[in-house]
Amino acid sequence: MHTASIIGFDHLLAGVKSSMSRVLRHFAAVMLSAALLIPAGFYQARATSLALPSLAPMLEKVIPSVVSISVRAPAAASDGNGTTLPQTNGSNASSVGGLPLMRISQGIGAGVVVDADQGFILTNNHVIEGAVDIKVTVVNGATYTGTVIGADAESDIAVVQIKASGLTAARFGDSSKLRVGDYVAAVGNPFGLGQTATFGIVSALGRAAFGVEGYQDIIQTDASLNPGNSGGALVNLKGELVGINSAIIDASGGNIGIGFAIPINAARDTMRQLIANGEIRHGQLGVEVQDNSADIKRAIGIGSATGALISDVLSGSPAASVGIKPGDVIVAVNDASIDNAAQLHRKVASLPPGTSVRLSVARPSGNVELLATLSTPSSESQTAAPAEIEGKGLLGGVILKKLDSDSDAFGKVEGAFVSSLIDNSGAAAAGLLPGDVIISVNQHPSTTPQMTADLAQRSDDLLLLGVFRDGHKRFLIVK
């Protein structure tokens, strides 16, 4: 009996110990949970008090400096419905990579206040070009009449002035410090909606999207640009003005994420001259150029695959007067190397008329140094290229003309339009017909009548002509 009692007590004691152990473990778990929950709650409360990342503080300072611009133009100069139109202003570059390059304003646009006291507004030339009335609406909704102080079609920059008080001027940045991948915001007046901001990155630098001899070094961005954004601000994350939005690649009638802006460093220099003098005078060499390549290097027989290949020379131009001819490749200007056509464009147009430049020209016989004096685009010494020329060599008897809008091929290819040819000529025997467009000679691109004639003259054996006819390309052999 005594023994049984002891055993019963041991069982009871074991049960108490087990229960206490469970209680202690439960208590420890509760305390641990509390210890974990307290910091978690503290940090959660602290997190809710922190501001979320936002561009709002920066844009609140930028947006007041951006204005909306609407223009009234003569009926012949407007499409009447606010749609985008292909660029003009002396430029022949209407596409990039085969896609149409469009100015992004027609009747509406934007501008950036650059001098609050004087009321100076920086915008695109194509926004106000041909306008008979300009209205500028500032951020508070007030509208003023704008006066053009100066405009330059070559750089697509214009300065408009309004008489207003309480304006906010943009802060200038340094576009030379931009890198591919930098974040940027675009502020403008898309579709006339008023101040609107979009966000993206710098997609590329050094684009040459506009003009034949324009100096621009274009910024490419994927920040959404649409009709009405022209003349608006492209800013960095500091809110500094780094570009003036100007154009988009328009393959579908709307934004596809490829837009272009003029670097503010170039725009600012032009702006200063426009404010001081009302106009800009760009130097001109009088050439049409394209990029050199390894294939062209081998075909021409020169020692460089870089540089600007001369495709045509204006009669009476500075280039013509010093003996530059199609097929030459300019590899340096004043000892500064020229890697492509865009660099030559910018270098020449950045110099005033009357400037003497030393040109390093690559030819099959070796490099030569030529000294040319730049003229103005409207120089009286330059005469228009002849309306038509006769082919040379194996293209004898073929009359070539510049491709114009009367041809179905206009805008589809570049080349020499065959106006007529002699029936018994070698070209006629090869199947060449009036209305054909010769786009290459012996596999060398041939974009003008003069270039076609000169390339043909180099061969006395046979010619391999690339011909565009009825929407299709084919080769013909002339012997």
Any overview of this molecule?
The structure is a single chain. This protein is α+β, with helices and mostly antiparallel strands. It has four domains: 1-50; 60-277, Beta Barrel (Thrombin, subunit H); 287-373, PDZ domain (Pdz3 Domain, Roll), CATH 2.30.42.10; 388-478, PDZ domain (Pdz3 Domain, Roll). It has nine helices and 29 strands. The protein has helices at residues 2-49, 56-62, 125-128, 264-277, 294-300, 318-321, 341-349, 426-429, 449-457, and strands at 66-72, 95-96, 99-103, 108-115, 120-123, 133-137, 143-145, 147-152, 157-161, 171-172, 183-188, 196-207, 218-221, 233-235, 240-249, 259-263, 287-291, 308-313, 329-333, 336-337, 356-362, 368-373, 388-390, 398-402, 416-421, 437-441, 444-445, 463-469, 472-478. The chain has a seven-stranded antiparallel sheet with strand order 7-6-1-4-5-9-8. Strands 23, 24, 25, 26, 27, 28 and 29 form a seven-stranded antiparallel sheet that branches. It is elongated and about 90 Å long. The N and C termini lie far apart (134 Å).
